[in-house]
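note to self — DONT lose this again. spent like an hour looking for the file last time. sequence + predicted structure for the chain T wanted, 146 res
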Amino acid sequence: MKPDIGPQIYAWTVHPAAGNKKMFALALVVSAVFFLFVLEVTESVFVGLVILLVYLGTLKNYFFPSHFRLCAHGVEKKQLGMCETRRFAEFHTYFVAKRRDAILLSTRPAYGLLARTRGLELLFPDRETCDRVETLLQEAMGEIGE
């Protein structure tokens, strides 16, 4: 059952591939070259397609739009028909990317070895959205970010 995260405070959508057509074309070319390489090595179209689908699955945050909702008691991420809803109480800290295009809400203590690898990643279309969400996170979670 989806946890109740309260009323919506802020919502945004991000689609990295739509914002940069050259990088999108480059990613498709690299994917095609990767598929041809796997096809040559394995000599199997089926194995090549399976490996290509796994590879493209790792790039889903880039190729498909993500919709985010910041609410009074948590955050929600929707992508490809899947919805991940988490309460702020689950997170110990958050980390802001140097380019200010992402925030990682970490489920690990800030001093832990895996603090920057586990949690929910919030992506942003621009710095202004990141700054706005960071301000809202500070209000909701307290001054625990880094």
